[in-house]
C-alpha cells in the first residue's frame, strides 16, 4: 500500500504560512495586487482563474480581474499588460493560458515584466532557473518539489524519469529535479522503450496529458509516482495520467487526482506573489 501524498493538505499548510507572511508584510507597509487576465470564456480556464482569485482572498492579497472578450486583439492585450507593468500596485501579472488562436502566446509571455512574472514563463525567468539565478519558478514543477520535500521523499541521487516535455511542466521539472541533485531522464512520445525507462525510475513524474497511460508495467516496486494529469472520464469522474488502481499497490508513495499536484500549483503561485510583494531578490 502506497503512502498517499496529500496535495490538498500540503497546499493548505503553505497557504496558511503565506497568510501569516502577508499579515507581517502589511505591518511593514508592503502590499500589492495580482492581476489575473482571462481572454475568452473557456470553462476550464474560468475555474482555474476563480480558484486563483479565491486563493488571493484567502491569504489576504488583492486580486484584480480582467475578463476580456474572445475577440480581444493582441494589441489590446499587450496594451493592458504594459499598463499593468507600469502600475506600482501590481506585483504580479498572470495571463491564463491558452489564449485564443489569433493571439501569439509567446508575444504575451514576453510582454510581462520578468519581475512581475509570477507564472515563471518569461524566457528570462526560464533562463535564470536553468543557470540557478534568482527568478520566479514555474508553479507546477516547484509545487511538485514541495510535495516531495514535505512528504519526506529524498530526491538527491535518485533516478527521476519525467514523461512529457512541455514548457510548463516537463522541461522545467527536469531542471528543478537536477537542481535537487536527482539524476534526470526526460521522455516523450518518440522515446524508445519507454516502459523499461520508466520502470527504472525511483521517482516517476507523469506529465504527458493522456488519461490512465501509466499502468503497472511502467512502475518499479517501491517507486514514488507523481501524477500531473487531470482528465474527466465518461462517467464524469476525474482521473490522471496514471492508472491509480493499478499503480498504487506497487508504489511506495503516490499523488491522487484530484487532490495531488493540482492544488500545489495555486499554492506556489501565491508563494511567488508573496515573494514579489516582499521584494525578495531570491525568489526560490
Ligand atoms: N494554463 C494551464 N496552466 C497554467 C498556469 O500555470 N498558468 C497560466 N497562466 N495558465 C495556465
List the helices and strands and how they pair.
Elements: E1 3-4, H1 7-27, E2 33-39, H2 43-59, E3 62-68, H3 74-86, E4 90-95, H4 105-111, H5 123-130, H6 139-150, E5 159-163, H7 170-179, E6 183-187, H8 194-199, E7 203-206, E8 224-227, E9 231-232, E10 238-239, H9 244-247, E11 253-254, H10 261-278
Parallel strand pairs: 1-11, 2-3, 2-4, 5-6, 5-7, 7-8, 8-11
Antiparallel strand pairs: 9-10
Helix pairs in contact: 1-10, 2-10, 6-7, 6-10
The protein binds guanine.
| Shape label | globular
Bound molecules: guanine
The profile of the biggest β sheet is: 6 strands, parallel
Q: For the residues shown, what is the average pLDDT? A: 97
What do these coordinates show?
- The protein is built from 10 helices and 11 strands.
- It has helices at residues 7-27, 43-59, 74-86, 105-111, 123-130, 139-150, 170-179, 194-199, 244-247, 261-278; strands at residues 3-4, 33-39, 62-68, 90-95, 159-163, 183-187, 203-206, 224-227, 231-232, 238-239, 253-254.
- A hairpin with a 5-residue loop joins strand 9 (231-232) and strand 10.
- Helix 1 (7-27) runs parallel beside helix 10 (261-278).
- It is globular and about 50 Å long.
- The model has no long low-confidence stretch (mean pLDDT 97).
- The chain binds guanine.
- The site of guanine has 8 residues, from strand 4.
Amino acid at each position: 500500500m502506497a503512502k498517499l501524498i496529500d496535495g490538498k493538505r500540503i497546499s493548505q499548510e503553505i497557504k496558511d504560512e503565506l497568510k501569516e507572511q502577508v499579515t507581517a508584510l502589511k505591518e511593514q507597509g508592503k502590499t500589492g495586487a495580482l492581476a489575473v487576465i482571462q481572454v475568452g470564456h473557456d470553462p476550464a480556464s474560468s475555474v482555474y482563474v476563480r480558484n486563483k482569485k479565491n486563493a488571493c482572498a484567502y491569504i489576504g492579497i488583492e486580486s484584480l480581474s480582467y475578463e476580456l472578450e474572445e475577440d480581444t486583439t493582441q494589441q489590446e492585450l499587450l496594451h493592458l499588460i504594459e499598463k499593468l507593468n507600469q502600475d506600482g500596485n501590481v506585483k504580479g501579472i498572470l495571463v491564463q493560458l491558452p489564449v485564443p488562436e489569433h493571439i501569439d502566446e509567446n508575444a504575451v509571455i514576453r510582454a510581462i515584466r520578468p519581475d512581475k512574472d509570477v507564472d515563471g514563463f518569461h524566457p528570462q525567468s526560464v533562463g535564470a532557473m536553468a543557470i540557478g539565478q534568482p527568478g520566479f519558478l514555474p508553479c507546477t514543477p516547484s509545487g511538485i518539489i514541495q510535495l516531495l520535500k514535505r512528504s519526506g521523499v529524498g530526491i538527491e541521487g535518485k533516478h527521476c524519469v519525467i514523461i512529457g516535455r512541455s514548457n510548463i511542466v516537463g522541461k522545467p521539472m527536469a531542471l528543478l529535479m537536477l537542481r535537487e541533485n536527482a539524476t534526470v531522464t526526460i521522455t516523450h512520445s518518440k522515446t524508445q522503450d519507454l516502459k523499461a525507462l520508466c520502470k527504472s525510475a525511483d521517482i516517476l513524474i507523469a506529465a504527458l496529458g493522456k488519461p490512465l497511460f501509466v499502468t503497472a508495467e511502467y512502475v518499479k516496486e517501491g517507486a514514488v509516482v507523481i501524477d500531473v494529469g487531470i482528465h474527466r472520464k465518461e462517467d464524469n469522474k476525474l482521473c490522471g495520467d496514471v492508472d491509480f488502481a493499478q499503480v498504487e499497490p506497487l508504489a511506495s508513495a503516490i499523488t491522487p487526482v484530484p487532490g495531488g499536484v493540482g492544488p500545489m500549483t495555486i499554492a506556489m503561485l501565491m508563494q511567488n506573489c508573496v515573494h514579489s510583494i516582499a521584494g525578495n531578490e531570491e525568489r526560490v
